[in-house]
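Hi R.,

Here's the chain you asked about this morning:
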Amino acid sequence: MTILDFSIVGLYLVGMIWIGLYFSKKASSDIDSYFLGSRSLPWWVLGASGMASNLDISGTMINTAFIYALGAMGFFVEIRGGIVLIMAFLMIFMGKWNRRSEVMTLAEWMKLRFGDGIEGKIARLIAAISVLVSSTAIVTYFAVGAGKFIGEFLGIPPFFGLPSQFWAATLMILLAMIYTVASGLYGVVWTDVFQGFLIFFTIITICVISLVSFDIPDVFSISIPLRDGGYQAVETTKDAWTNFLPNWRVAFPENSSYSIFNLFGLTIIFYLLKTVIEGSAGTSGYMIQRFFAAKSDRDAGLLSMFWTFLLSLRWPFVAAIAIMGISLGVKRGQPIQDPEAVLPIVINTLVPVGLKGLLVAGLMAAGMSTFDSVINSGAAYWVKDIYQAFINPKASEKQLLLHSRMASVLMVIFGLFVTLAIKNINDIYSWITMSIGAGLIIPLLLRWYWWRLNGFGFALGTLGGMIAAIVQKLVFPNWPDYIIFTFTSGISLIATITGTFLTQPTDDVVLLNFYKKTRPFGFWDRVRCKIPSDKLQQINSENRRDIIAVIFAVPWQLALFLTVMMTMMERWDLFGLLLVLFLFLSFGLYWFWFRHLSSEVKIDP
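And here is the predicted structure, written out as tokens:
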């Protein structure tokens, strides 16, 4: 990094802080404006912000690592979370269901679903705690990746007994905190939009450099990490590396960190099953916040589609970085050892002066946009669902805003210090997606589709899942993903069913009000019989269309992402097949979903 590169990065950081502080006054009128932008933000702004919040440094580094080590097949590993396949479900029905709830947080949603009695209060409190735990884990995940990335460029030395990566992450987080704490969602989304342009420039630049200046050798070596902290070189070929059709089995050494993927076909089937369950369950935190802030059902659908299209650009970018990393390894005579370090090493080694500063700023933008979204949404759960709901119900707007900012700071401090116990990005990422995520997935799923689930069942299932996830991390850290998922979700399922059937059902008046507002499909005969027949027919028609549309939407998103990635690998045969598939699926989406976006069933209270 030269003075020019540092100057570019410095200008970017000053610009981010200025935008955030500019919106601070607008965001400070009340907590609705602070956390939801007063539900007045355009759909394209929410969609662009959502894309920027998903395209983080840590995720980009781990996605690049899998493409580098496994080739195009590595794409399928990230069905577990990195492809963000939940967007297909949010686009078709889950986004509008959440928007219709008219709440600020997932925990406040519990009041709508389970009522304002003891079961609703317990479900709300446990939901808020679970989101705060997962948000802190995501801060840790962000900090590990940011520390690795920024540490490569800034050369910050270790001091006070703490490693350089810790201080690099701290620097980046403190800068992002300034505008996040000051301006809430207004600052988050508008800085995300600005950062989105920078990210887009970064992606296009790297893709052009890769296509023009780098080729994939016919035979080359990559490197995979070992459990003892070492690395092992593995030889492969261009045809094998660029073929996205997954093998049923792969042959990583048993002492490799990637040996958990050796039953590759089974692993991918499991990831797809997990994604279908997760997508059907919905989500929480920073992703769902965009839908709570949407103006209408139509806006919820449009922001999802725009978000997905923008997110597809991540995959040609990571493929380009992986190709450049392979070329660098061939030139040096040995592959880059740490797959997670391919991204910063490539930029630091192969990108010219000036452009390097822009790319570093763009990737910092990607990281900061994730961080600011997580912090803003996570703080809402403390303020709205714990402090205001249980500690100080009569708190003034000034007190609520103060607690919003305090909660943001405390989450960051705790998340930063947890990074000292994490060895690599995949450690924390796997735990977030496959352990703690699995521990929460069953009660999140059943809340939409089964009238009998009550607040006690939700609370006990969520608590059981969180405890199971923590036990797994501490006692069984090397379990394969499918065993981790089965263990944590199984404990959660048993706890959910036990808590539900040992207690009374939710009041019918609460259930009917919930169904009228959100209108989900599933096992709702107890309350559907109270809906007028003409309205029920319209609801049934919408639900049937949505079920058919999501069958198109899941492969549509996969085909979109793979199609653009094949352009970087110059596999035009596979590109043509994927393009035909994508166009067919797009027609299905248009027919069953897009042309009905403006339709919404209205039911009197």
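One quick note: Residues 214 and 324 are 6 Å apart (CA to CA).

Cheers,
M.
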